[in-house]
């Protein structure tokens, strides 16, 4: 018999308690196999693809895209025995787990709610579509009969559903959109279609032609949205399309407030000159009533980053030291490496030399590679370097790290930097890649910024800010020449690193960038 399994949201890493559903890769009725990717979720650290734990047919999607759910919440239901034999139900009916005529895999409990067995589900839904045309436009689903005459569009739609062979009135398109099935008491018999009153309009060439009245020509669109006449007039005056308004009134009716909110939302995006399609950071927000603000909920990576930065800023006492240096020789080295065959398949930038300089400085001053354990009141000195690289992504700031970077030569470090950057930009950085960092570089120079006072990555004692490299007048060998100059800033946790140690570390980094040959002496 059909066997239905519900897949709960797992912990994607490091004890995270919730995640947002970003994209479903499957739909109800799809056949899935073990380890096939079925959904993409976003945790507080990264995007994660979840595989299916079973083979079978997708029965239900339990959580919609954009919803944040707690770990352990069922998100999808899979029939692991789709070819199982139907089980007898009460009254001698067979409740089958086979696919319905609509292509969805029906759960036995849901199939039993429809009239008849699984074979009758499609007929029942067709019957709903026929009765949907009798709903009074502008008044929702009633609880009983009504003496009000339905609008002409609704009457024609109901007449067409009842008598499929009846011709449609001239100039009107008949549409019977699927709607929730009303209860028997709410079904209203529609009168015969009202005659269409011809009206005369003038074409662009000055000639006249006879067309259907406005009530007939607009019936195809008007029958979709439920709204009272005053609300429709307000929408028309404000230029709001009722079809895109989210209704909040009883029975799915569009209210005056819904129309005003939609108008303000459109005005707000016009004032900001950032429509949702062009500004993804606004797409999930709510526009204020006056259209002057958009509020976006804080979640996922940005939420985790904010929490970590606040904790770091108010827990670790920050001290920052600065150094301005001539890096002309580093720029010459970068050009030589770009022409070298060994580095033909990797991207060589000044950041590569700065990363190597930091690793050599840590080797000379290993006490800077540490963390403060507040719970045990201990200093933890780490005998390895997991070099973090702060990366700005559309999802927010992430700091993946290169594991055991201290063991890598320059070519291996360049390859690791390229892989790390590409993964971060694609949003595929895993939680493991962002865990257990020991020291970090933030390259603010790519934004044209000279320097900054970076906040420590939580659990680390130092972070280096690498500024923009500019051509500037510089005293070189007693003469003023144009040289490549940059600024470095090193922020440290003053509980672990005092001013002397921080200054020595930064001086060593600067010495290698000023003369990369110094690395041969210290390396």
Estimated share of beta-strand residues: 15-25%
The CATH class designation of the domain at 301-522 is: Alpha Beta
Helix content: 25-40%
Taking the alpha carbons of the first and last residues, their distance comes to 68 Å
Number of helical segments with 4 or more residues: 14
Record field, number of beta strands: 27
Low-confidence stretches: 86-223, 269-277
Radius of gyration: 33 Å
Structural class of the secondary elements? alpha+beta
Q: Would you identify the CATH H-level superfamily of the domain at 301-522? A: Chloramphenicol acetyltransferase-like domain
Q: Looking at CATH, which topology of the domain at 301-522 would you report?
A: Chloramphenicol Acetyltransferase
The overall pLDDT average reads 76
Shape: globular
Provide an overview of this structure.
Strands 17, 20, 23, 24, 25, 26 and 27 form a 7-stranded mixed sheet that branches. It is built from 14 helices and 27 strands. The chain is α+β, with helices and mostly antiparallel strands and 523 residues long. Among the domains are: 225-297, Dihydrolipoamide Transferase, CATH 4.10.320.10; 301-522, Chloramphenicol acetyltransferase-like domain (Chloramphenicol Acetyltransferase), CATH 3.30.559. The chain is globular and about 85 Å long.
